[in-house]
Design brief:
This protein is 68% helix and 3% strand. The chain has 326 residues and is mainly alpha-helical.
Length: 326
């Protein structure tokens, strides 16, 4: 559906549509920050992920109303700059602050990876690594300044977030630290409990009513999307999904390198988004959220359409050149 829509749309119109998504996500990010960071109740929900007392202050974590497109918004604001406007910078800070106040270690690491990949790829394409290094230094300086600024008016939140990184020093299978080793451990338990006959193609669309073990599968999937992918579609599905990510990243890279202008920028944008989601899939449900599957795969459709547009333009150019010569 997305591919068909984008194929019939001018890239400038697509760009405006994507920017409108960034605006909407940024509004949601502000509300999320006010509710979870400033503890000004906006959403009436009892479904807080957890609540902890730190220095006499209650720190809450929830993902029920967390903006879903933070990585997309940050990538867009990095790649498609609006003439370095103040609005662009404000929106970037708002989305980064929403990630910060989620207290999610992986999300913060992914932002750093997005910045690194962005500057490395743009430097590689332009062969101007000095500019890329200068950009990384400026971003690092801005990040440090932002960290100390936030720490000054949200000291408890900062202390809690730092403590989450310290939890990684605990035992690899410590449930409280919930590190990557423990997440793979839970995914391994799901695979071990599967019927050997079902490991290749999976169990399909079963529910908790049909199979009580689904409750544990969902808990494991909250920390790694691949747990449910293997359970539902087997190792064959695992290979298909993993190849989808890898091949898409490779195609986006070549499209970024071979083109210029808006198509090139959009290719880099979706390369960063797909890369971020791939990393995130090892620590969260990502594409396996029941309320947004298969919409969470929308960027693959747009990337496929961009590739079609590029091929169509490439086939038109020789015809136009032949007509001019004639």
């Amino acid at each position: 559906v997305f591919k068909d829509i984008v194929n019939r749309t001018e890239t400038e119109v697509l760009n405006k549509f994507l920017f409108s998504i960034v605006i909407l996500n940024s509004i949601a990010a502000v509300l999320y920050f006010v509710h979870q960071g400033l503890h000004i109740s906006i959403y009436t929900t009892s479904k807080e992920y957890l609540a902890e007392i730190v220095d006499g202050e209650t720190i809450t974590r929830t993902f029920w109303f967390m903006p879903n497109l933070l990585f997309f918004s940050i990538s867009y604001l990095l790649v498609i700059k609006k003439s370095k406007s103040l609005i662009n910078i404000i929106l970037l800070v708002v989305n980064i602050m929403a990630v910060y106040i989620s207290y999610t270690r992986t999300s913060l690491i992914i932002i750093v990876l997005i910045l690194l990949v962005f500057y490395l790829l743009t430097g590689y394409k332009s062969m101007n690594f000095k500019k890329s290094i200068r950009g990384l230094i400026l971003i690092a300086a801005a990040g440090i300044t932002m960290f100390f600024t936030v720490s000054s008016f949200l000291p408890t939140s900062t202390k809690y977030f730092i403590s989450r990184f310290k939890d990684l020093e605990k035992s690899p299978v410590d449930a409280h630290s919930n590190n990557l080793v423990y997440r793979f451990y839970k995914t391994g338990l799901v695979i071990n409990k599967m019927d050997p006959v079902k490991t290749l193609f999976g169990y399909g669309p079963v529910t908790e009513t049909q199979m009580l073990f689904m409750k544990y599968v969902k808990k494991a999937t909250d920390d790694m999307a691949w747990a449910e992918i293997v359970f539902r579609w087997g190792f064959l599905g695992l290979i298909v999904f993993f190849l989808l990510y890898i091949v898409s990243i490779i195609k986006a890279f070549f499209l970024f390198m071979k083109t210029d202008g808006l198509i090139s920028k959009l290719a880099l944008l979706f390369l960063l988004v797909i890369f971020a989601q791939l990393v995130d899939s090892f620590t969260q449900s990502t594409i396996m959220y029941p309320n947004r599957f298969p919409l969470s795969l929308w960027h693959f459709g747009i990337l496929s359409a961009l590739l079609s547009i590029y091929k169509r333009n490439e086939s038109i150019q020789p015809i136009e050149l032949a007509e001019d010569n004639y």
